[in-house]
Amino acid sequence: MVFFSRKIENYVSDISAKASSGSMAAVCENVRKNGYPLRIGVVCDKFQFSWPLYGVSLSTGRLTVGAPIYAPHLVEFNVDSPASIVFSEKTSVVSRWRNLVIETEPYWKTGQTLKFIAEGLEFSPLSSSLEDQKLQETGGSQTADKKTIQQNVEDQASLQDIPDVVAQPLESKGVSQKITAEFLRFDLEHEKNHFSGNMTFDGFDVSPIFISSFVDVPKIDGNLKWILNDVSLLSEKGGENWRQHLYGKSGILKHGELAFHTGGGVHISGPFSFDDEGYLTATFELVCIQHVKFLETLKHLFPEEADNFKALFFILSTLPKNADGAPVLPLTVSHGWVKLGFLKLGRLAPL
């Protein structure tokens, strides 16, 4: 038992040490053992992380890292709400949840896996720039110094020249409308330079995206499964944006499903790739489910395209059908330019 508990402690220590050696800073305040007798692990009162190279900092509440005694290779992270995420000191997101669990198998020899499960999730992007906001020290202190790190993480590498962790206060003013999801799950696997994933969500509310159009946006349920070929998202190359790791890469969307709570939805699948400038090229097959309700939803969301959707409704009856009798539409993307059937929908920005 003590042996496995020590393994978990060493794992947390290794994460912090690797972070420090990679121009990152990680702080786990007041680290201590917990979980006996059925689990082995450690807990800290607050977790903070900073990666200046990419302009990202994170601050969360209580963090528990552990594993069941019958499967010590399966490491589980339980994170208490809320969390504050800051990007390049200009954009901040405050997130809250009812339950959040992250599972990984760091010692699994055949590949790396990651599972992220959240219930009652909400994101509140700040509407104003962080450049005009003062960073404050409140309660548990948003700035953790190097001395704290040395006291709470055993066997950690030298912290010299590692910047302090800075996190945005969790209770900030100017918060816009919330993006919420009743349930969200990510399953990710990286094996032999292939990166596969599966994302499932229920009750996804994207109303803030349409905040200026005064439309009532229905909630969405969905499921996405994909594979990216020859991809390493976390390269050792310093100063390179993580999106650039996708340049020149290809993959396949094995299955995509979106269902509106008002009825109707789509299934989508097909190959895709990114060119050397980050533009998407894809040949997708889009299947309309309950296409009458689906088109009504689209007309409601994009009233300026109502006439085009009306014309599309008549054309759907002449399109090929799948085994269930649902019409199939080609959705093509060429160097970022998107075309649905005969409708030109504009150009997507590069990564």
Automatic annotation (TrEMBL):
For this protein, the record's InterPro entries field holds: DUF2125
**What is the organism of origin for this protein?**
Bartonella tribocorum
The name this protein carries in UniProt is DUF2125 domain-containing protein
